[in-house]
Every structure is written in structure tokens, then in C-alpha cells.
Design a protein that fits this description.
- It is a single chain.
- The protein is built from 4 helices and 4 strands, in the order ααββαββα.
- By secondary structure, it is an alpha+beta fold.
- The chain has a 4-stranded antiparallel sheet, with helices on one face.
- Strand 3 and strand 4 form a beta hairpin.
- Helix 3 packs across helix 4.
- The chain is globular and about 55 Å long.
- The chain starts with a helix and ends with a helix.
Length: 155
């Protein structure tokens, strides 16, 4: 049976994880949850804006067939998003190879590869002495996409 101390420790650990993901500097539970709620609202707005951009870019996707990449800096690591309006056979492998080359550890990921390609991951740098910025991550993922595109692995 789980003791109260273990339950408290588990809750504390989860709150600290939520705090780090949402870039919160709050110290008490209520403030961490409020910051997380605000962070979720910002993400919802960002998703709405990106969906509008995708809708407006739908007609121009013939001119720019490469997937769209966004990278955000988190307290410890990065939030990486890759989206394409079409399926992209082999692209996931190319992206993960780029992560490996940069020594990024994937902490959490969601992937959908059916009709469209969607990849979202939270990653952090394995090397504590090295610092990598969001721009470098975006460039590496972009280069992986370009290499994948040139290799002919795409649908």
C-alpha cells in the first residue's frame, strides 16, 4: 500500500515536472496550476493561429511541399513540432537521426503518420556542458527534412 509520504512525493514530482514544462517560476501548487492553465491557453491560441496558417497555406503547399517546423525553448530542453499536409514515409527516422546527432534525448513524443504527418516531441540535451539553442535545433531538423526530401523516401 502506498503511504501518504509516497503520495505527496509523487504529487510534488508531478508538479515540478508541470512547472518545468510550462516554464513556471511559481513555488506553490495553486500558482503552478494557474501558470499551467495560462500556458495551455497560449498553446490553444498558437494552435488556432497555426491552423489558420495551414489553411491559408493549403493552396500554396504545391510551391512548398516540405513539412513545417517550429521549435520552442522550455526550461529544460525544447518543444519540437513538425507538420506536413501529406504523409511522409521515412521522415520520422530522419528527424530522430538528427536528434541523435545533436545528442538530444526525446523525453516525450507524439506522432501521427496516416494522412498527414504530425510530430511533437519534448527533448533535452544529453551533454550538460554543451548548450544548444532552439535555432540550432530547428536548423538541424530542417536539414534532416531537406536530406529526406532529396533522398526520395517521401510518398
Amino acid at each position: 500500500m502506498v503511504s501518504e509520504e509516497q503520495k505527496r512525493a509523487a504529487l510534488h514530482e508531478k508538479l515540478q515536472h508541470l512547472r518545468s514544462i510550462t516554464n513556471s517560476h511559481a513555488l506553490n501548487k495553486t500558482s503552478i496550476i494557474i501558470d499551467a492553465s495560462k500556458y495551455i491557453e497560449k498553446l490553444k491560441e498558437k494552435v488556432e493561429r497555426l491552423n489558420q496558417e495551414i489553411d491559408s497555406a493549403g493552396t500554396s503547399s504545391v510551391h512548398n511541399p516540405l513539412p513545417m517546423v517550429t521549435v520552442e525553448t522550455l526550461e529544460k530542453g525544447f518543444l519540437i513540432n513538425v507538420f506536413s499536409a501529406k504523409g511522409c514515409s521515412g521522415l520520422l527516422v530522419s528527424i530522430l537521426e538528427a536528434f541523435e546527432e545533436m545528442r538530444l534525448t526525446v523525453l516525450e513524443a507524439r506522432v501521427s503518420c496516416t494522412d498527414t504527418f504530425r510530430f511533437q516531441a519534448v527533448g533535452e540535451n544529453e551533454e550538460q556542458g554543451e548548450t544548444i539553442d532552439a535555432h540550432a535545433v530547428k536548423q538541424a531538423v530542417g536539414q534532416a527534412i531537406k536530406n529526406w526530401s532529396k533522398s526520395g523516401d517521401q510518398d
